[in-house]
Write a structure and sequence with these properties.
single chain, 5-stranded antiparallel β-sheet
């Protein structure tokens, strides 16, 4: 699974990637920094509020004091990328433009459960 997101995860100033279903369940998440430890990511009510507020939005960018959150709607949920304030947003959009059709094709061909199996 990480292979699909590798181009994004290796970009400069990317801190993590989450793919969240429309129901608020994590399909994929990986963080390259300790930011995930300071936030209760597993709380489903927290995510359902975010998902509800994103309805109708295809793309969003939120800028905070020292972080940026880039959100893209896909056919399977929302792709959320946490990055530094100076991350190259044009390159991020380009990578997402290439990733989203691959996610949609994987869903259509194999189903997502096969694609996102954890290796033991």
């Amino acid at each position: 699974m990480r292979k699909l997101f590798n181009d994004i995860l290796v970009m400069e100033q990317v801190n993590g990637v989450m793919l969240i279903s429309f129901e608020g369940q994590f399909i994929f998440k990986e963080f390259l920094s300790s930011i995930a430890e300071s936030v209760d990511l597993e709380n489903p009510s927290w995510w359902s509020c975010i998902i509800d507020s994103l309805s109708g939005i295809k793309e969003a960018e939120m800028v905070f004091t020292n972080k940026r959150l880039y959100i893209r709607k896909t056919n399977i949920g929302y792709l959320m990328i946490l990055m530094g304030i100076f991350a190259p947003i044009a390159m991020m959009r380009l990578n997402c433009d290439m990733l989203i059709p691959a996610l949609n094709q994987a869903k259509a061909n194999k189903g997502l459960k096969r694609l996102f199996k954890k290796k033991t």
